[in-house]
Automatic annotation (TrEMBL):
A Pfam short name: Patatin
Record's protein name: Patatin
Active site: S56, D200
Chain ranges for the short sequence motif DGA/G as given in the UniProt record: 200-202
Family the entry assigns: Belongs to the patatin family.
Alphabetized GO MF terms: hydrolase activity
Length: 343
């Protein structure tokens, strides 16, 4: 492949953006996709993208990549730690199966009045992986959406890729992950010094394609006609139309809201990349599956999700290599002071 020529910004590489949707344990699918890409190519994902945006479980993946973890290590987080986070460690025999069914029933009953799960297990597993890393330790630019329920506004964690962003780089990756993944009714809102009652970014940006494209076009000032965007979803399904919607259709309504948000985000990215209908540099991977087959907190089908992710990666590799795996990117130099100069 011919090496790209220097663009108007002086970069020898086209700007490349990776986005990853929310979806709980269904994040095993995009994690497996990225692990397969790294394994086949021999290149780290983080070394080939100028900006990584992720919401909820996608935010955890984005933070992991930016922290320097391999996609295989991130996938292992889902497979080994995911069942512990959602109290679903496997067991054999009738007794173990019965106990697991009882715990699921208790959790579902609990969800009627409060969060289905405590955040302590997720915090513990995140701390084991991220340690003391902060957003300022990121190897590339990241954008992690959350929602500020205390003030009724958007809250987006960002690396210091602009001089205005003088605070988030000090935030621990664990806190950012707990905030973006605080899905209402599943996990409690997250608070830390400087922010209170943050909720899952999926409230407004479950698919962060549009957020990432806007960041590139406005804050970073990139020529989006030269940009390339790879978007990974956590599966999708058909949501049949209903003529009348009542309270009994609340799950259908929530899914419809997510679908509408997804379409808007996708359309925003398409328009900003300059070719709304034919841009071959915008790639969306989000396999369609039967409605209700996978749940965001069900660890029993993660092996299927892993196989799906790896299979989709193998099929997409020719285009992935051509558009995204170009052997490097321009160095990311954050605006915050070096750690040894911090006051």
């Amino acid at each position: 492949m011919r090496a790209p020529s220097t663009n108007e910004e002086g970069s020898t590489f086209p700007r490349r953006i990776l986005t990853i949707d929310g979806g709980g344990l269904k994040g095993a699918m995009p994690a497996a996709f990225l692990a397969e890409v790294e394994q086949i190519s021999g290149q780290r994902i983080v070394d080939n993208f100028d900006l990584i945006a992720g919401t909820s479980t996608g935010g955890i993946i984005a933070l992991g990549l930016a922290a320097g973890l391999s996609a295989t290590e991130i996938l292992d987080f889902y497979l080994t730690r995911g069942p512990r986070i959602f109290d679903q460690e496997p067991g054999d025999g009738f007794l173990a199966t019965t106990k697991a069914a009882m715990r699921r029933f208790v959790r579902s009953t609990r969800q009627l009045r409060t969060a289905k799960y405590e955040a302590s297990a997720l915090r513990s597993e995140l701390a084991a992986v991220f340690g003391e890393r902060r957003i300022g330790d990121s190897l590339t630019r990241i954008v992690i959406p959350a929602y500020d329920s205390a003030n009724g506004g958007l809250y987006v964690f960002k690396t210091a890729h602009h001089e205005r962003f003088a605070a988030d780089w000090r935030v621990s990756m664990v806190d950012a992950a707990l905030a973006t993944a605080a899905a209402p009714t599943y996990l409690p809102a997250h608070s830390f010094d400087g922010a209170a009652h943050l909720l899952d970014g999926g409230v407004w940006a479950n698919n962060p394609m549009g957020v990432a494209a806007l960041e590139g076009a406005t804050v970073l000032g990139w020529d989006m006609r030269q940009a390339r965007l790879l978007s990974l979803g956590c599966t999708s399904s058909i949501n049949p139309a209903r003529r009348v919607v009542g309270f009994k259709n609340v799950k259908w309504l929530i899914q419809t809201l997510f679908d509408g948000q997804d379409r808007l985000s996708h359309a925003t990215a398409k328009l900003l990349l300059g070719h709304p209908h034919t841009n071959h540099h915008l790639m969306r991977i989000c396999p369609e599956v039967p409605a209700g087959h996978y749940a965001m907190d069900d660890a029993r089908r993660m092996d299927d999700l892993v196989r799906m992710g790896r299979s989709n990666a193998r099929a997409a590799m020719p285009k992935i290599k051509e558009c995204f795996l170009l052997g490097g990117r321009e160095p990311f130099v954050p605006c915050h002071p070096a750690p040894d100069k911090e006051k």
